[in-house]
Amino acid sequence: MALQGKCAVVTGAALGIGRAITEILMKNGAKVALLDVNQAAGKSLVEVLDKQYGRERTLFLNCDVESEEQIKAAFQKTADTFGGIDILCNNAGILDEKCWERAVSVNLMGVIRGTYLALEHMSKLSGGRGGVIVNTASLAGLGPLPSCPVYTATKHGVVGFTRAMAAASTASGYGIRFNTLCPGFVQTDLYTSIKTNLGQFSDLADATQQMVEQLGVVNMSDVAESVLEMVTDETKNGEACFVSPKERKYVDFPKFMG
Ligand SMILES: NC(=O)C1=CN([C@@H]2O[C@H](COP(=O)(O)OP(=O)(O)OC[C@H]3O[C@@H](n4cnc5c(N)ncnc54)[C@H](O)[C@@H]3O)[C@@H](O)[C@H]2O)C=CC1
Ligand SMILES: CCCCCC(=O)/C=C/C=C\C=C\C=C\[C@@H](O)[C@@H](O)CCCC(=O)O
């Protein structure tokens, strides 16, 4: 299997897209450390996965990506348990236009924090064996969602940060590929709670619903398959994969130099 012997870390792994990422990585042979703040959901998922794949393939760690200390400890525990880290999926994210500082802290700062701590384990410049990091942004990382400007900002930040890290890795020789996942609407708890989290932009809830009707809802399996491709295809570095109900395509970003 493509990921036999590989060790992965997935944040926000207990539910939704993170669960789908975890499952497809395990289906393809990887061991997975599931990091999440939802202990009940995380432990319940691990029970299911242990029955399917055996007890030595998973590790659930209660970890808040807003905490440097907790991520650092979780990565170390993963490396100690599985013998290293080859794959990181910075997936944890929230929608909250009311407590927008928390959205920035989780969605953008959490991705940066996880990436930088993973470098200590994965980069060939620090004795690591290289690997791949896939950061979960959104279609809102490629174009604005008027009903959630801060969420949009965090996702644009994730796209830009990830592309810059891909270029830095190539230039400096980290031996790590960096790619971004940009799905449209996906049926998850976050999606279900959109209307309650728009704050001062709640008047735009109907307009957002119209976007859902225009764009449609993406199949979770298509989201997971796009992550698997960005993890396994060694040619993919600095890519942003747009996933809609109709298609999966890599964004052709404008070039401004040369
Ligand atoms: N559902 C959608 O329509 C789309 C979601 N996304 C992104 O996908 C990612 C996953 O979202 P969903 O699966 O939809 O959400 P979800 O709410 O279903 O699952 C998110 C998971 O992350 C965990 N989490 C939240 N804050 C955390 C923190 N501080 N530390 C650790 N874990 C934390 C939650 O406990 C939960 O298990 C997010 O980054 C989201 O922005 C992107 C595009 C579309
Ligand atoms: C409303 C919060 C949703 C939170 C979950 C999530 O991330 C969902 C994102 C789904 C769709 C995002 C669409 C963004 C569209 C913009 O790019 C818009 O400007 C597109 C304009 C149409 C075009 O073809 O350019």
UniProtKB/TrEMBL annotation:
<keyword id="KW-0644">Prostaglandin metabolism</keyword>
<dbReference type="GO" id="GO:0047034">
    <property type="term" value="F:15-hydroxyicosatetraenoate dehydrogenase activity"/>
</dbReference>
<dbReference type="GO" id="GO:0005737">
    <property type="term" value="C:cytoplasm"/>
</dbReference>
<protein>
    <recommendedName>
        <fullName>15-hydroxyprostaglandin dehydrogenase [NAD(+)]</fullName>
        <ecNumber>1.1.1.141</ecNumber>
        <ecNumber>1.1.1.232</ecNumber>
    </recommendedName>
</protein>
<keyword id="KW-0560">Oxidoreductase</keyword>
<dbReference type="Pfam" id="PF00106">
    <property type="entry name" value="adh_short"/>
</dbReference>
<keyword id="KW-0276">Fatty acid metabolism</keyword>
<comment type="similarity">
    <text>Belongs to the short-chain dehydrogenases/reductases (SDR) family.</text>
</comment>
<keyword id="KW-0443">Lipid metabolism</keyword>
<dbReference type="GO" id="GO:0006693">
    <property type="term" value="P:prostaglandin metabolic process"/>
</dbReference>
<dbReference type="InterPro" id="IPR002347">
    <property type="entry name" value="SDR_fam"/>
</dbReference>
<comment type="function">
    <text>Catalyzes the NAD-dependent dehydrogenation (oxidation) of a broad array of hydroxylated polyunsaturated fatty acids (mainly eicosanoids and docosanoids, including prostaglandins, lipoxins and resolvins), yielding their corresponding keto (oxo) metabolites. Decreases the levels of the pro-proliferative prostaglandins such as prostaglandin E2 (whose activity is increased in cancer because of an increase in the expression of cyclooxygenase 2) and generates oxo-fatty acid products that can profoundly influence cell function by abrogating pro-inflammatory cytokine expression.</text>
</comment>
<dbReference type="InterPro" id="IPR020904">
    <property type="entry name" value="Sc_DH/Rdtase_CS"/>
</dbReference>
<dbReference type="InterPro" id="IPR036291">
    <property type="entry name" value="NAD(P)-bd_dom_sf"/>
</dbReference>
<dbReference type="GO" id="GO:0016404">
    <property type="term" value="F:15-hydroxyprostaglandin dehydrogenase (NAD+) activity"/>
</dbReference>
